[in-house]
Amino acid sequence: MPKQPAAARRSAASRAAILEAAFELVGEVGYGRLGIEAIASRAGVGKQTIYRWWPSKGAVLFEAILVRGFGDGEEPVPLPDTGDLEADLRTVLRATALELASPEVDRPLRALTAAMVEDEALAEEYRIRVEEPTREAKRARLRSAQRAGQLPASLDLDIAIDAIFAPMAHRWLTRSGPLTEEYADALLETALNGLRHHGPN
Amino acid sequence: MPKQPAAARRSAASRAAILEAAFELVGEVGYGRLGIEAIASRAGVGKQTIYRWWPSKGAVLFEAILVRGFGDGEEPVPLPDTGDLEADLRTVLRATALELASPEVDRPLRALTAAMVEDEALAEEYRIRVEEPTREAKRARLRSAQRAGQLPASLDLDIAIDAIFAPMAHRWLTRSGPLTEEYADALLETALNGLRHHGPN
């Protein structure tokens, strides 16, 4: 039992309100104009309350996005595994295309990207808490496909993951083309063709 | 003949000094701590001189990188075309891997990326002045390979460009793995295998 249940409850409520406010605000004004003062005001707390828990607006935003995307401290969702690699990846890539194309996801993700390009510590935390667990979930799905004989056993899984998933992330970041289901399908076809025909040189 | 050759010469010299100072400084302190005042001081000009020509530090930096990378207002260098698509792309991708892995390129490029994620006008200018001409040079090389029968004529060239070039850019941005010649070769093999086996569904 916590010693100060009421204070602990108030802390938890304040934290949740701050994260919610940060997530909402960045969607409205973008990262450049996101301010600790505005977050505090919308969350109904003082600025010092925010600075007690987070060192920067980037850190608040990171936590806010993490809580939305993965649940608080939980493992990332594994990739679907119906036994059909191509169908499963199509499901994932189509869903990713639609998500990235939606303003509710686009804006906070761009803000987080901006924060991380400037803040190496935040980027490192992202790698540990998001990127690497997500990659591991992808590796697990590809290993299952290797066991099922759908991909060569000799494949370098990190190359495979980059080939399958990176082009869409890059198109999103550079806005170099539309993010559609057709694009997802075409990318997947190209990547899987390349990976299936992989062999030792 | 310009009416004020001496003044015009002084302007050109100031511009060059400002761009040089911005490029050097961002390599030393990163984008977050890059300041107009520090650029002005190193270039030996007043802050107002900078603000007369550029609206923001991001805009100065963009110009500084553009001048370095492409010559001032010149066309981007075309991709090599020896008639052997795989060899030519290997040359380009290996060179890109080594460049991105070097701090002199990594730091200014990260700074520019940070600036563009926050500044849509700058991102749009980048698309027009860098991304699209570069893509067009890549398309031209792939069209030449199509004419030589090295790639299917039915290929969507923008999908092909994403499949070949995006994974390395993404690995660089996310620092998700080392940028080596081996990585370049493995990516290229996967992408080209996928593109060669492309067919209408």
From TrEMBL, chains A, B:
DNA-binding segment(s): 35-54
Keyword hit for Cytoplasm: no
Keyword hit for Transferase: no
A single GO molecular function term of this UniProt record: DNA-binding transcription factor activity
Superkingdom as given in the UniProt entry: Bacteria
Residue ranges constituting the HTH tetR-type domain according to the UniProt record: 12-72
Keywords: DNA-binding, Transcription, Transcription regulation
PANTHER family assigned: HTH-TYPE TRANSCRIPTIONAL REGULATOR RUTR, TETR-FAMILY TRANSCRIPTIONAL REGULATOR
Stated name of the protein: Transcriptional regulator, TetR family
Organism of provenance: Streptomyces radiopugnans
